[in-house]
Request: fold
Amino acid sequence: MISNSDRLRTHRFGVNYTPSRHWYYCWNDFDPGAIARDFDAIAALGLDHLRVMTIWPWFQPNPAWVSPAHLDRLGAMMSLAQTRGLDVCVTAFTGHLTGYQLVPAYMKGKDFYTDPSIRRTQRRYLEALASVCAGRPNFLGLDLGNEINCAWRPRTREEGDAWLEWALTLCDTYAPGAIHVNGVDHQPYFIEHSFTPHALVHRQPVVPLHCWIEFTGARQRGGPLDEVCVSLPAAMAHLARAHAADPRRPIWLQEYGASACWMKAEVVPAFCETTTRRAIDAGVSWFTWWASHDIDPALRFDQLEYSLGLFTHQNRPKPQAGVFAELAAEYAGKPVRRHSPLDRLPAITDDVGLSYASTWDWLERAMSASQTALRPAATSGPRSA
Reply:
């Protein structure tokens, strides 16, 4: 049996699944045929995993009741993925997705992180999800939610860290041996927000990073193919490792992508390739593009959300799908490699007073160091992580 440590030091390529038919309203209007066609297209690219969002208020509309129908649909989706060789990470408290806040009605006036009744509700939900997923050969693990810090912010980071420890311990109890994470956005690494970087990089077996050039401010500092954008995930990987004081810490690039609102469509394939290769050079292990499919413009989302897929909503591959498939063919299953100069990045021991200005100063210095020291070292042969 392959250990989790070995799995986390092997490259993987996958997608954040966005159903081509009816977005995640598919949980309420379930069409196994449409999902199977989506998974066929994804598997045909040679990808090996999905990140799938459950929608908390639909799956658990009452604190005392988790919908058996929705759990059955999750099981069916897991089975469809398994037959196509796709492993699945399942998010729990979502929460926040595609710009929407999807909050259960019973959360009104209650604190997500500390209220005892909400803790009992959350425990019931995690146990229910694990009852469907645990033991399946294609179950990667639970993600506590999609960017829960965007939906619920604790009063202090200490409260956030305490909840993180409690929730991940439950996941380890209900689904032992799986890889459980907390897929927050970039903010806890840029400002004092919801969780400390120390807790995030030490409590999780792999550090998931959401590296969006728009929301981090990279796009405001340069064009989509400038270093500040294409090296953002690599630099954020260095940043997470600096908080961990561990240059070998496994990193999962869990969300990155490109909207036609941020760059011309013909630029996206080059952005995808260059960004991914920079992150591979930095020793990132797993790559999960956002998203699998475009959203049908007939649905009312923000304009930026419609063009993020590797496939159109008619399930036709876009040029970036071919690029991502070529990267997967080149690197998937191979051991992660890291250039030795990364070992010299200084640890970050004080995360009080984090700000966008100070974080960007650190990131830009890391990018500069990478260009002057790391990339020339590639010719002398990288060493195994």
In short: The domain at 4-384 is CATH 3.20.20.80 (TIM Barrel). The longest strand covers residues 139-146. The longest helix spans residues 356-374.
